[in-house]
Hints:
Layout: H1 25-40, H2 47-60, H3 67-83
Helix pairs in contact: 1-3
Amino acid sequence: MTDNKPGAVPTGSMENQDTGPSLPAEVAAAFNEWMRRYTEDPDGFEVEFVTVVRFLEEQNDGKVPTYGDTSKAYLELLMKQLSAR
């Protein structure tokens, strides 16, 4: 079952669910690479906790949070690194 709230993470099987437009397999590989790096070096991701506070402050100030842009850039970097392998 999924929660339709913004930012909700789908749970359970994604089969038979309309997920909208399909993303390239490279995106899934980049997310797997992100998780691999995180599980191997969680301390290297401590800055994410600071990012949460910044996100909430921007959102509370009525600004568009910058998290999406910085996450997009990191995901693109991972995809570039993976394609160079």
